[in-house]
Amino acid sequence: MTFDDVKTMALRLPDVEASIRYDGSTVLKARGSFMAGIATDESAEADTLVVRCEHDDRELMLEDAPETYYVTDCYARYPLVLVRLSEVTEDAVRDLLSVSHKMALAKGRR
Fold first, then answer.
1. Overall number of domains in the chain
2. In the chain, which residues have pLDDT < 50?
3. CA 72: distance to chain centroid?
4. How many CB atoms neighbour CB 98 within 10 A?
5. In a 3-state reduction of DSSP, which class is residue 94?
6. Contact, 38 vs 50, CB < 8 A?
7. Can you give the pLDDT at residue 101?
8. In 14, 66, 78, 102, which residue has its Cα 20 to 30 A from 57's Cα atom?
9. pTM of the full predicted structure?
């Protein structure tokens, strides 16, 4: 799985766009709210996706599949999870993007 694969899947969802952050990295947004992107903090491993998710869901993912999902101190306080692209399945990415999409849209409505 690559970030290009993730981007292709995400752009099929309604109201999703790819944009460039201040550091030059690509992020995916739904109606202007962050959904996912490549983790750029030095605490994250290379080729790691950062995706919006609920804290409770993150805890379950960390327990169930620590080889795929993790979090560092930098990201721990936010509703995000880190995903090793080399370990994640296409179906799991679809599910992550679906949840992230709903969360981003809800945030945008506030």
1. 1
2. 110
3. 14
4. 13
5. helix
6. yes
7. 97
8. 14
9. 0.93
Model pLDDT for residues 28-58, shown as the tens digit of each residue: 999 999 999 999 999 999 999 999 999 999 9
Q: Name residues whose C-beta falls within 8 Å of residue 106's C-beta, 6 or more positions apart in sequence.
A: none
Q: Give the residue numbers spanning the domain of 96.
A: 3-109
The residues, ordered by sequence, that sit 6+ positions from 67 with a Cβ below 8 Å of its Cβ are: 84, 87
**1-39 in b/e burial notation, b at 16+ Cβ within 10 A?**
bebeebbebbeebeebeeeeeeeeeebbbbbebbbbbbb
C-beta of residue 18 within 8 angstroms of C-beta of residue 11 = yes
Q: For residue 39, give both structure tokens.
A: 């983790």
Token pair recorded at residue 59: 């805890």
For residue 73, the model assigns a pLDDT of: 96
Residue showing tokens 């090793």 = 84
Give me the pLDDT at residue 107, please: 80
